[in-house]
C-alpha cells in the first residue's frame, strides 16, 4: 500500500490537490506525470527519504507499488547499514 | 513456419545478410539466458555489454563506417594531413536499424528484470525476424511481443477484418498519397538554387505528408498483416500532425522508436544526471535526439534534425512552467480556435524540421531557409497553382478521415460506420488507387534507415 508520505511528495511535486494513488497506478495514469518530470519526482523522493536509487532499480519500476517497495527496501538497508 | 517464411522473405532481397539476423538472434538469445541465470552482477553486466556491443558493431559497421571514414579524412585535412578515406560502399542490410534495436530491447528487459528470457531458440529467432516488422518496424519491444509468440494465438474474424482494413488503408497511404507526393517534393528538392520561397514551402508540405504516409502506411500494413495472423503490434503513428507541442508530437510520431529511446536511452541518462535538475533532463534530451537523428541516417542533415527536435523539447521543458501559470480559456469557441492555431503553428515547426531532414546537404537547407525568408514571392503563378491543387487533391481524403479519427478518438471508426458509407469509402479509395496510384513507385523511405 502506498504510504501517505510518499503520496504527499508525489502530489506536491505534480502540484495536484488530490488524486487517488494505488499500488497498481502507473505513472502515465497520473495527470502531469510524464517522462520529463519523472526524474524530478524520483529525486524529491530520494531527498525526502535520504536514500539513493540505482538506474537499473528505476528501470525496473512498473507501478507505484513497485516504487513503494523500492523505497521500503532502501530504508531498511539504510537502517541496517 | 513463420520463421522460415521470414527468412525466405529476407533472403529474397539478399540471402548473405541472413547471417546477420542469425548471429544477432543467437548472441542475444544466449546473453539473455546467461543474464537471467547468473547471480553475479559482473557476469550479468558482461553479457549485457556483449549483447549491446555485438548489435552496435553490426549497425556501426554497415551503416556508419563510410560516414566516419569520410569525416575523419575531412577533419584531418584541416590540419594539412591528407589521407584518402577508406570507403567500403557496402550495401546497407535492409531493416538493420530496426532488428538490432528490437533484439537489444530483449537483453535489456531481461537485465532489468522486466521479463524472463525464453528457452525456445526458435521463438526468439522469430521475434527478431518476424517479417511484417522486419524491414521498417514498428520496433516491437521484447516484453510486449515475445509473449505473443510464445503463447497460442487467438484468431477471430473481427481481427481479420480490422487487419484487412489496416492493410488497405496503409496501401492507399503509400501508393496514392506518398508516391504521388514524391513526384511533387523530389523535383523541388533535387533542383539547384536559386529557390523560390513559395515553391519551397509547397515542397516541404508535400514532403511532410509524403514521409508521414510512407511510414504510417507501412506501419498500417505491418499491423494489419500481423492482426490477420493473430498478433497485436503497437500503433506506431497516432495522428501526429494534430500535436500542439513537441512532447505530444513524440508521443504520436514513430511511437515505437520514441518509446525505445525513452526507455533505454533518455531515462538512464536523465536519471544519472538528476543532480543537474532541469539541465540534466535537457542534456538527456539533446543526447537522445541527436542520436535519434543519427539513427535515421549517416548524414549531418539527420544529426541537425535530431538536434532541432531536442531544442524544441528543451524549449518546452524551460517554458512550460510559465505557460501553466496562464489562465485557462473557458469559452469553448475561443478554446477551439486557440487549439487550431496551436496545431497549425506547431505543424510549421515540424515542417521546418522536415526541411533539414530532406535537404541533400546543410548548404541546401540553408539556401532553402534563406529563400523562405527573403524570397517568398508568388512569381510563377501557374506552377504554384498546379502544385497547390495537386497537394490538396492527394491529401484531402487523408485529412478528412483523420479529422474524424481525431474527433471520435478512434482509428477504426470507418469499420463502425453505416455499410453504405463504408462502401462509398472503399469504392472511392479503390478508384483513386487504381486510376492515380503509382505503380512501381519508390521503395518505402524508412527501408534505408
Please sum up the structure shown:
In chain A, 59% of the residues lie in helices and 0% in strands.
The largest chain-to-chain contact, stated as pair and per-chain residue counts, equals:
A-B, 15 and 21 residues
- Report the strand count of chain A: 0
Mean pLDDT of chain A, to the nearest integer, reads 86
* Number of DSSP E strands of chain B: 0
Anisotropy-based shape of chain A: globular
Question: Which bin fits the share of residues in helices of chain B?
Answer: over 70%
Strand composition percent of chain B:
under 5%
Q: Helical amount among residues of chain A, as a percent range?
A: 55-70%
Shape of chain B: globular
The largest sheet of chain A is: none
Tell me about the biggest sheet of chain B? none
Distance from N terminus to C terminus of chain A (CA atoms, Å) equals 25 Å
Please mark out the parts of chain A with pLDDT under 50 across 5 or more consecutive residues, or reply none.
none
Strand residue content of chain A: under 5%
Order of helices and strands of chain A: HHHH
User: Please, how many domains of chain B?
Assistant: 2
Mean pLDDT of chain B: 88
Low-confidence stretches of chain B: none
